[in-house]
Amino acid sequence: MDDVYHIPVMLKESIDGLNVHEGGIYVDATFGGGGHTMEMLKRLNGQGMVYGFDQDLDALDNWKRRTDFKKYDDSFRFVRSNFRYMKNFMLYYGVEKVDGILADLGVSSHHFDDSQRGFSFRFEGKLDMRMNQQATITAEQVVNTYDERRLADIFFLYGEMKNSRQIAAAIVKARNNQPITTIEQLIEVTTPLFHKERQKKEMAKLFQALRIEVNQEMEALRELMDDTVEMLKPGGRLVVITYHSLEDRIVKNMMKTGNCEGREKKDFYGVPETPFRLVNRKVIVPSEEEQTANPRSRSAKLRMAELI
User: Fold this and answer.
1) How far is CA 170 from CA 150, 166, 180, 189, in A?
2) SS3 of 258, please?
3) Is 77 helix (H, G, I), strand (E, B) or coil?
4) Distance CA 229, CA 219 (A)
5) Helix 199-215 crosses helix 183-190 at what angle (to 10 degrees)?
6) In a 3-state reduction of DSSP, which class is residue 177?
7) Alpha helix ranges (H) inside the chain
8) Are residues 296 and 266 in the same domain?
9) What is the mean pLDDT of the chain?
10) pLDDT, tens digit, 9 for 90 and up, residues 153-182
């Protein structure tokens, strides 16, 4: 398999944590380049099933182009959908419970490297940022139609930007003269608000915030996490790789308390009640070698839990 399209993060650690066994049924909620799915299929050895979810129209075509996909026909099914609809699709395919669910929440390498998709400030192009190319809301629409307060909230909540109000005000002022339709225009408007030595980091936060809003990433993640309790078999594994504190907090809360908000429930004797048992109490991060070879992995955190 050619991994230039997308390098899977913490491949061995995550699939080991998933505890894949022959005859099992597994969900790769973020198919992407198919690297994690491929490792699951190898370990299943034709005895079991993997359902790969991805809303990107390019994902399956690239999988077929880069792999001998036909030999996995009997043990792999691609689902062209957002993982927030996992439960509905699994029931549609007659699957009530699964042995494991994996989600690598980062944006695929090819998304950042495709100048036409608008995910990176490294390229010129339109403000798009849609993971689902058939979705109606783009980053251009967010930048040009959201009011100043809503923009500021997005930049503060999803980008954790301290000067979110100033950024929103600058965008609204600029768009009143001319719509902001390209990456270059957005950079020109916002760059003066960032200290020179932190421009790249701040711009990355800005683009992250817009991407999260465009793709409703936090809402989708909460729905996925809520469904895991119902979809996993007892002893089934939930394995999640996160890349920023917002999504990591949701995953951590679910695994520790059984809900995305982190509300602790206790029984009559004051003992905490949770549907999960933590597989790794200390978060796992990529090795130095992996971080050097794959810079995308540097902010990654791996959490794993087992349904009791």
Assistant:
1) 14, 6, 11, 7
2) coil
3) strand
4) 17
5) 130
6) helix
7) 11-18, 35-44, 58-66, 86-92, 109-113, 139-145, 148-159, 164-177, 183-190, 199-215, 217-231, 245-257, 288-293
8) yes
9) 91
10) 999 999 999 999 999 999 999 999 999 999
Which residue range forms the structural domain that includes residue 138? 114-215
CA distances (Å), 263 to each of 1, 38, 88, 271, in order?
A: 43, 36, 26, 14
Contact 220/132 with Cβ under 8 angstroms? no
Assigned token pair, 99: 């042995």
What pLDDT is stored for residue 49 in this prediction? 98
Beta carbons of 202 and 161 less than 8 angstroms apart: yes
119 and 42 share a domain?
no
Please state the rounded mean pLDDT for residues 136-164.
96
Tally of domains within the chain: 2
Q: Write the pLDDT tens digit of every residue in 207-253.
A: 999 999 999 999 999 999 999 999 999 999 999 999 999 999 999 99
> Is pLDDT above 60 for 100?
yes
- Contact call for residues 132 and 215 (beta carbons, < 8 A): yes
Q: With respect to residue 182, please indicate whether it lies within any of the assigned structural domains.
A: yes
Same domain? For 32 and 74 the reply is yes
- Residue 233 maps to which CATH number? 3.40.50.150
| Confidence at residue 116, expressed as pLDDT on a 0 to 100 scale | 52
- Quickly list DSSP for 149-160: HHHHHHHHHHH-
88 assigned to some structural domain: yes
